[in-house]
Amino acid sequence: MGFPNSTSLKISSSENGGEGPIREKRGIFQRTFVLLLLFSLVIIGLYSLVLIVKGRDALLLSLESEARSVSASLSQVCGNAIVDEDYEFIVEHCLEVLRNSSGIHYIVVSRDRGFTLVHTSKQWEMHEHPDSEWRFEKGEMAEGYMVYSPLIGKEVYRFSYPLQYSSLQWGWLYIGLSLKPLHNQSESIYKLTALLGLFCLLAAILGSYFFARNLTVPILSLLKATLSVAEGDLSARASLKTSDELGMLANSFNIMTERLEKTTVSKDYMDNIIQSMSEGLIVLDAYGKIKLVNDAALKLFKCSIKELYDRDLFEDVIVDKDASSKKNWLEQIFKQKSIKNIERTIIIRGGDEIPILMSGSILKNNSGFMDGAICLLMDITHRKKIETSLQNAYEELKNTQAQLVQSGKLASIGELVAGVAHELNQPLMVIRSNAQITKHFIREWKGDVDSLNNLLEPIDRNTKRMMNIINHLRTFSRQSHATFQKVDVNEIIDNSFLIIGEQLRLRGINVLKRFGSNLPKILGDNNQLEQVVLNLIANARDAILSKADNELTPVQNRRTLDKAQSGRKKEGSRMPSYKGQIEVVTKVGVTTPMILKEKETNNGAGQRFIDILVRDNGTGLCDADVDRIFDPFFTTKEVGKGTGLGLSISYGIIKDHMGDIKVTQTDATGTSMRVRIPTAG
Prior knowledge:
It contains 15 helices and 19 strands. By secondary structure, the protein is an alpha+beta fold. The chain folds into four domains: 1-233, Beta-Lactamase, CATH 3.30.450.20; 277-379, PAS domain (Beta-Lactamase); 387-481, no CATH class; 482-681, Heat Shock Protein 90 (2-Layer Sandwich), CATH 3.30.565. Helix 1 runs antiparallel to helix 2, helix 9 (381-443) runs antiparallel to helix 10 (449-477) and helix 9 crosses helix 11. It is rod-shaped. It is found in: Cell membrane.
């Protein structure tokens, strides 16, 4: 009968002090089985011993009872015969009893202080004096015991019984009973006891086995489950379905393991999260010693976990370039409870300098007391490189934008050259004419000073006008950095018309100015804002000319163009019935939630703006073009008549001024553009 296989378990050497695999364990079942078997054997042995002793005592009592019965009968018969001295009767009666009772070996009748009659199955004898064997002491009671008898040469059960008659004791009667029945019955008792003992032993073996098995198999099953859990298999469960204490223990173990599995899964999940973080995570105790680091921190410090564990972060691992920063870090974490995104440059092992972004918070224990700190370190080396690259790219972009703005200016100047030339031509003609008249007047001068002054005054006025045009054109075309100052919107628009106004007049485009009075000034760059206004007016001009071209015949179109370029009227040419008009309006605008929403004043009133509205009655824009007009290099003009940069540059300029530029209305009757810029205060 073998032992259950479930008891064979092995434990790893790491759990055995490194002594190698432990031998298979079967002890608990063997010890339980042997202990129960030994206990059963002791019980069986004691029971058998008691049974034998009690059986022997019962047999002896049976012999004593038989001897007492025979002795009482003989005593009654022989007592009368002794009194009557009828010894012949005594002898005959005793011999008769011996012949009829094979279990009686002898009968001895001994008279008090007299003779002794000894009867055996073969003979009888008479002794004048009692032998020492049959002597009795005074006060001796009836009793029986086993003793060796020299009379017959074997062991007998000797029973002594007093001979009495009329309550007087006359002597003693001795009977020797055979021990053969006793031995036969004792042997039967021994055999029966042995059979019963063997049966009980077999029952004890089976009972011990099943009891030990039922007791130890659940324990070993629970042990197997615990060892599986100890080896990391948290899915192991103890499969016991008993309702006793072991079943309750197994159920408690399963509940504990299930909770441990959930906790371990959560812990493993959290460990995976921590180890997967791209930022370095460090957990410090209350003394600044490192207790936990993740892989990102190890990579950042170029150290192993053994080199970092229980080391002082700010003394043994890193050095801040700012010597006072360490104290600030700790004070902010432990006193202010948290720090966020503190940028520092640290020096690690090997002297490498690493820019980092550090955040941290205190770590509390279950009682709510501070137990340490959690630090998060982000290596921003790559970000710093990107920031440097972005800064360089931004500078290049600014330079490019400045070049584009300057290019836009030059393009505008190129478009306005004809108008500026005519603008200068008129004053020059006046100056030349007046100079000729003055020259002729001087030759015939009669001392009339007033007439001379009247001739010189137009020269002076037109010279100043030419100087203003040339100086403004030179200022406008100069490449310079934006200088924000308080400027007057109306003045900017007037300066714009100083450059482009004559060109509009030559093309028969009427200009309507509706400037608001006492407008607050705005904060901006005079030169850039003038460029925006020029772009809007130039676009309005082109839209009007495009519409005019669509209404003229090819001949009329060519004649009108010649007229515009020469400034002279020709016979047969006519202007179209269509009259172009550009309207420029300035006013104080209302607040919109889309622009500078955060700059609302304390009294609830919104930020004030200056609105510049430029309306024309030229060709409108289609819906698809409205969404693209501010895209670089997008233009609706013919090839060679536009770069597509005007509105794109204007959009960037207005955004730099914290303003907004948009199309407010466009259809077949014309287009309306609005520029909105916040006031200076």
